[in-house]
Amino acid sequence: AFQRNGLRRMNVEEERYIEIVTTYSPMVYRVALHDCRNHADAEDIMQNVFLRLYRFGPRFDSEEHLRRWLIQVTVRESRRLFAKPFRKREELFEEIDPNVMAAGRREETSDSGADGTILADVFCLPRKYRVVIYLYYYEEYSVREIADILGKKESTVQTELWRARQKLKQKWKGETKHETAGKKAGNKTRSDDCTV
Length: 196
Description:
This protein is mainly alpha-helical. It has nine helices and no strands.
């Protein structure tokens, strides 16, 4: 049933295409946002992904095959965006002073409370860790599946997950010390800087 209702090159059944976009656009957007940390860029990437699906999408064996294909194309589109010379300069600027965009990143995380704080901290990680963390914890893919989706070795994915966790632990440990010091001084403080 899936193949019969699936996509054909340059000939997408409109109803099925709309169903796919409706179902998977939030996931595609979140993957793109974790990689580029910018709403406008994430929306552009999402549009490009679904345009590629419409024009070149293969036949999918299952929903999981479709889901993986969408994530792979999202990551490729994001890499393509960051390969552009002006984006390389922006990324270099971020590496030199990561605090410049911290406030904007916190606004871009629409979640509230602890989940929003965690998501904001994940946004502060270096690019190579963000998507891996997202796929592992939010989409619940295994290390092997992430390696397959991203075209990386399993050992590389394991290393990136470990390093990302270490960076988050360092950040949270530092914030705990700041909060303790703030309480002693009579005021609660939380750093909004991306210091990891």
